[in-house]
Write a structure and sequence with these properties.
The structure holds 2 protein chains of 2 kinds.
Chain A (H helix, E strand, L loop, with lengths): L2 H4 L2 H37 L3 H15 L3 H11 L9 H26 L3 H9 L4 H31 L11 H11 L4 H30 L1
Helix pairs in contact in A: 2-3, 2-5, 2-8, 3-5, 4-5, 5-7, 6-7, 7-9, 8-9
Chain B lengths: L8 H4 L1 H34 L3 H15 L3 H11 L9 H26 L3 H9 L4 H31 L11 H12 L3 H32 L1
Helix pairs in contact in B: 2-3, 2-5, 2-7, 2-8, 3-5, 4-5, 5-7, 6-7, 7-9, 8-9
The chains are: A mainly alpha, B mainly alpha.
């Protein structure tokens, strides 16, 4: 095991480049999946006749599929029906779709946890349903959703590593390239890669725990 | 677009799909049992009155939960030849799944154990039972009720995570789907069918977990 050679400046720079791509893709997916997830979650909560059920079927299907399948499908199967996406776009789309499904469940759970009495009071005070949602339910619900949402974002950061199967140049991909060059670098590089992921995720997990404690 | 959906892919390559599906199931079941045992052990380590064990248990859970599963599996798959014990894709995948899932199960079991009133433990110890006996006969049986829904969820995640075997040539459903796609020159239908196989496992499991959650919430 060659730790010194493994941690050469070239290798370390290459790993950091991968980390940049990981963070970029993860950030894009986080923002998009939050927007879509909140939208779908709220639509399901509002129990609109056809729309909510259609969303339910969509969400349940996506949530119950492996992310690897969704990533592979987005990049290699969609072109056969005319949707061609670059590696980076496919990764972002696949991650967004999957995580949005997860987030929609968190949002729906958070909204459901708001006492019905609040809605009744708002409605009988003259607020329309959309106004009730926007001013009363969503603000309170969002606060409750924060801890599981942060946990979901940690999961998303980890899941970006799966995009290696479509050759996205993220952290795991670059680590594999380095380890492929020299068999003595495998354990040192993989351990460092694990440490980098840990260094990014652990602080986030502490934030999630702090948020949860504050609500108790 | 859907007019020429090639339904014949499924019967033509059924054997491959079945082989992959079988291995996915196998890996998931082995990892479920192994990670349950390991996870319970780690949970007990975290709450045992022995500081070094506490530290190890906590470090294990915190580290593993914040590292991607693929990294853990790769460490075993790519790193095992260097330690003169080469593991194939299926083995490293299953070991990685076990180690990864055990961390999550440890947290669920710990929450379950800590939900049992302390008075129970005190009563047991003052009646002369050892710590081990107290765990086995008093605490763990009561903790099981709280622990079952999160465990069901972890099995669900396990089945989905087993797809990582495909990345290390672990003979699972994803791996065979890749082979079928290469041989048939078709991608769309091949992966739709693979998705259906996964859903055949995960949707019943998901419904089962939701049912359990409702039942246990009522009686608990």
């Amino acid at each position: 095991m060659d730790f010194i050679g493994a941690y050469s400046p070239d290798n370390l720079t290459f790993l950091l480049k991968g980390l940049m791509v990981t963070l970029k893709v993860a950030f894009a997916a986080i923002v998009l999946s939050f927007v879509f997830g909140a939208l779908v979650g709220t639509l399901r909560y509002a129990k609109i006749p056809v729309v909510s059920q259609a969303m339910a079927v969509l969400v349940e299907t996506i949530r119950n599929l492996p992310l690897i399948l969704i990533i592979f499908f987005t990049r290699f199967a969609l072109p056969e029906v005319g949707i061609k996406l670059s590696v980076e776009m496919a990764a972002i789309v696949a991650l967004t779709v999957f995580e949005a499904a997860m987030i929609s469940e968190i949002v729906r759970g958070g909204l459901n946890s708001i006492d019905k009495g609040q809605i009744e009071a708002a409605r009988s005070s003259g607020l329309t349903y959309p106004q009730t949602l926007w001013h009363i339910v969503l603000p309170q619900g969002l606060r409750r959703m924060m801890p599981p949402m942060v946990s979901q974002f940690i999961a998303l950061l980890k899941d970006t590593s799966l995009a290696v199967i479509i050759s996205l140049s993220e952290l795991m991909h670059n680590a594999q390239i380095i380890t492929g060059q020299n068999v003595n670098w495998v354990i040192p590089i993989l351990l460092l890669t694990a440490l980098i992921y840990f260094a990014v995720n652990y602080p986030l997990s502490l934030i999630a725990r702090r948020l949860e404690a504050r609500q108790a | 677009m859907f007019g020429d959906f090639q339904w014949d892919i499924l019967p033509k390559y059924w054997d491959m799909y079945a082989e992959g599906f079988g291995n996915t199931l196998k890996a998931s079941l082995i990892a479920l049992i192994a990670s349950f045992v390991l996870g319970t052990l780690i949970a007990i380590m975290r709450i045992a009155p022995v500081k070094p064990l506490n530290w190890f248990g906590t470090a294990y859970v915190e580290f593993v939960r914040n590292v991607p599963l693929l990294v853990i599996v790769s460490i075993f798959f790519l790193g095992s030849p260097a330690l003169k014990l080469p593991l194939d894709g299926f083995q490293s995948g299953t070991i990685g799944l076990t180690i990864y899932t055990a961390a999550f199960i440890a947290e669920a079991v710990r929450a379950g154990i800590q939900s049992v009133p302390v008075g129970q433990t005190e009563a047991a110890r003052s009646s002369g039972m050892t710590y081990g006996q107290t765990m086995r006969h008093i605490v763990l049986p009561q903790a099981i009720n709280i622990v079952i829904p999160p465990l069901g969820n972890q099995f669900l995640n396990l089945v989905k995570n087993s797809s990582v075997l495909g990345v290390v040539a672990g003979m699972d459903l994803m791996y065979y789907a890749d082979i079928v796609a290469t041989r048939s020159f078709v991608t769309f239908e091949v992966y739709i069918f693979a998705a259906m196989f996964y859903l055949a496992l995960t949707i019943p499991l998901s419904m089962g977990v939701q049912y359990l959650e409702r039942r246990l919430a009522r009686s608990g």
